[in-house]
């Protein structure tokens, strides 16, 4: 991070947020004032405190004192609640900022539907209008910046950010955090909804690729073929890619330490299907794949890596074989 002194905040310290906040702490330079973090369950903030972060009691405390605040929350409901609901919300903190602090920028990195992104953004901007303007005349801003990448990418600062919002909010977020947490960023449009929709496009592809891979692995097993050999051939073919290489090996071993969990992938497919319905675009492949992720959740695999969707396909293959 570069530029003048800045107070940076982070809301949500789950499997992704904790790694992202750690990157912000590691990037602190002599011109930085520090990083303030918050999480609903306070215990998850303690490792960040040990690294030098200040731990806040509420989201409002973070937005009332920090110049740029990032949020990484599990779903649309959490994104709305943390940002907008009650006296402890991020919006409440923005409204109560001291006039000496100037404007704040709120950056939501959560994967949400377009309506949620628009609602949170509108609430943030309304609150910002009640605060003092900065030297450039701005009164703060909102940027939707959902990410592509798992927790290891977050740990290594290799996330990709798909951003929607004003140029000024994009510049503030880039200067004070995005470039510390990721390798690439795009301003895909002027609206938070643009970023939300762009992220869902990637999630559709990712969920379907891994679902197709799981189907192939279940067929391979049912056919009595060696899974390692089939994966090796796949890796040398025109269809080879890093995603199928990594997830195929997890499926072969039947071990699913979470990088991106089943419940999150299924949530994203659900949001994508809602968007497809709104737009009147058929999405039969995504609908079928979503059903298998739902089944994996019903099998108790919601917290496992989303490659565990293979278990849903294996169950069907086994039942079909038994019925023959």
UniProtKB/TrEMBL annotation:
Gene3D superfamilies: N-(1-d-carboxylethyl)-l-norvaline Dehydrogenase, domain 2, NAD(P)-binding Rossmann-like Domain. Pfam families: NAD_binding_11 (PF14833), NAD_binding_2 (PF03446). The active site is at 199. Residues 193-309 form the 3-hydroxyisobutyrate dehydrogenase-like NAD-binding domain. It comes from Mantoniella antarctica. PROSITE patterns: 3_HYDROXYISOBUT_DH (PS00895). GO terms for molecular function: NAD binding; NADP binding; oxidoreductase activity. Belongs to the HIBADH-related family. NP60 subfamily. Keywords: NAD, Oxidoreductase. This is 6-phosphogluconate dehydrogenase NADP-binding domain-containing protein. The keyword Oxidoreductase applies. Residues 7-184 form the 6-phosphogluconate dehydrogenase NADP-binding domain. The lineage of its organism: Eukaryota, Viridiplantae, Chlorophyta, Mamiellophyceae, Mamiellales.
């Amino acid at each position: 991070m570069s530029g003048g002194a800045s107070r940076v905040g982070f809301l949500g310290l789950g499997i992704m947020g904790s790694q992202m906040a750690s990157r912000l702490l590691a990037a602190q330079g002599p011109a930085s004032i520090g990083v303030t973090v918050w999480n609903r369950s306070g215990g998850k903030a303690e490792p960040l405190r040990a690294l030098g972060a200040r731990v806040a009691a509420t989201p409002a405390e973070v937005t009332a004192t920090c110049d740029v605040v990032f949020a990484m929350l599990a779903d649309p409901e959490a994104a709305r609640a943390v940002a907008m609901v009650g006296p402890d919300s991020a919006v409440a903190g923005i409204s109560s900022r001291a006039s000496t602090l100037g404007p704040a920028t709120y950056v939501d990195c959560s994967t949400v539907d377009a309506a949620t992104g628009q609602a949170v953004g509108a609430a943030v901007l309304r609150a910002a209008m009640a605060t003092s303007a900065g030297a450039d005349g701005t009164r703060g801003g909102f940027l939707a910046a959902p990410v592509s990448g798992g927790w290891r990418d977050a740990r290594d600062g290799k996330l990709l950010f798909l951003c929607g919002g004003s140029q000024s909010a994009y510049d503030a977020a880039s200067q004070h955090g995005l470039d510390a947490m990721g390798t690439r960023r795009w301003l895909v449009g002027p609206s938070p909804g643009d970023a939300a929709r762009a992220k869902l496009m990637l999630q559709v592809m990712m969920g379907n690729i891994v679902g197709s891979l799981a189907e192939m692995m279940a067929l391979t097993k049912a056919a009595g073929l060696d899974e390692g050999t089939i994966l090796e051939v796949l890796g040398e073919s025109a269809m080879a890619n890093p995603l199928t290489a990594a997830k195929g090996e997890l499926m072969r071993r039947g071990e699913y330490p979470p990088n991106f969990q089943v419940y999150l992938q299924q949530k994203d497919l659900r949001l994508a299907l809602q968007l497809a319905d709104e737009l009147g675009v058929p999405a039969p492949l995504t609908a079928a794949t979503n059903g298998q992720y739902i089944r994996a959740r019903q099998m108790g695999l919601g917290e496992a890596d989303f490659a565990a969707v293979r278990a849903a396909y294996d169950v069907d293959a086994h039942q079909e074989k038994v019925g023959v």
